[in-house]
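User: Design a sequence. Structure:
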């Protein structure tokens, strides 16, 4: 991801929407400042087909770079997403919101579009505010993508966590490597057989046994 990329923005609005003018004004300010490169505003009352093709049911609806935002967005939030549009940390923030709001399917959809985005999930594992629910969500995403090869982009980052994270993080990293599967994960898992934590050793052992069976 290019941290210096200037994103484009799309806004879907409708007549009578009380929040649409404020979001339009906020985006227009970002456009004037050069924080976004282009702004397309679509009146869905005139062009309902645009809302239909994007699966949008309520307005205002905003897309800044890869980030889709529903409802009213304060100027500070619009700026934040514009500034993070090209960064892995920004994608991690977005995935955090998706996983904590029950929108795991959106993470899967974005991962299929661009597998490198999955590296942001590893960033989430390092965050102190990542709850068990977030970690379970990451596991569910990887289970959904199992066998696709899309998650292989995560292997080096997860492998690093098996060495540098705390015990819980090392255990999760081993588990997620096992979900990705394939011989590429085997060296990382073998290294975990000597981990000081019993759970990490057990997860690595079971994962390697499963790899050998396949």
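Assistant: Done.
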């Amino acid at each position: 991801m290019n941290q210096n990329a200037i994103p484009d923005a799309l806004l879907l609005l409708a007549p009578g929407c009380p929040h649409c003018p404020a979001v339009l004004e906020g985006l227009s300010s970002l456009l004037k400042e050069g924080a976004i490169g282009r702004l397309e505003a679509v009146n869905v009352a005139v062009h309902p087909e645009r809302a239909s093709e994007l699966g949008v049911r309520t307005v205002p609806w905003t897309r800044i770079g890869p980030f889709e935002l529903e409802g009213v967005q304060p100027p500070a939030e619009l700026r934040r997403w514009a500034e993070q549009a090209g960064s892995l940390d920004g994608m991690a923030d977005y995935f955090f919101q998706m996983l904590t709001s029950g929108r795991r399917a959106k993470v899967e959809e974005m991962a299929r579009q661009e597998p490198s985005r999955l590296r942001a999930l590893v960033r989430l594992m390092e965050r102190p505010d990542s709850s068990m629910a977030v970690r379970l969500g990451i596991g569910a995403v990887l289970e959904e993508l199992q066998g696709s090869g899309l998650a292989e982009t995560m292997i080096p980052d997860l492998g690093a966590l098996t060495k540098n994270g705390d015990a819980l993080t090392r255990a999760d990293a081993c588990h997620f490597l096992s979900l990705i599967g394939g011989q590429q994960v085997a060296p990382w898992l073998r290294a975990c057989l000597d981990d000081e934590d019993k759970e990490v050793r057990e997860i690595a052992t079971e994962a390697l046994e499963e790899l050998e069976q396949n």
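The mean pLDDT is 94. The longest helix spans residues 198-213.
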